[in-house]
Amino acid sequence: MSGKAILIGNSDGIGLATTRELLKRGWKAVGISRSQSPIEDPSYEHIVAEVQSDEYSVKLKSVVEKHEPVDLCIFCAGIDEMLDFSDMEGQVKTIEVNLLGMVKTASCEELEI
User: Fold this and answer.
1) Mean pLDDT by 10 residues, the chain (113 residues)
2) Global confidence as pTM
3) Number of domains the chain is built from
4) Percentage, residues of the chain above pLDDT 70
5) Nearest by Cα to 72 from 29, 101, 24
6) What is the rounded CA–CA span in Å between residue 93 and residue 101?
């Protein structure tokens, strides 16, 4: 099976490995992450955007409209910091990336989730 995939948070780690595997299997893919991707493949496009930024939703909508229909959307973005109850203010970024970024992605009407 092949199709079109959007992967969020795929410039390293699990997201990068997943993107490479999909490309190897013949998928076309678009990645959105906070840094450049090391992937150079004619079936791949990369967009730099942070999920907690105001521009993320606009960029995601643009990508979906350009590449519709989208067969698969995988949210891989996340940061893992040790939870420090004495500094809950420091946990805000973790929540913004790990939870709110996923909610922004899922609420993109163009994805038809």
Assistant:
1) 93 95 97 96 96 91 92 89 78 82 86 69
2) 0.86
3) 1
4) 98
5) 29
6) 10
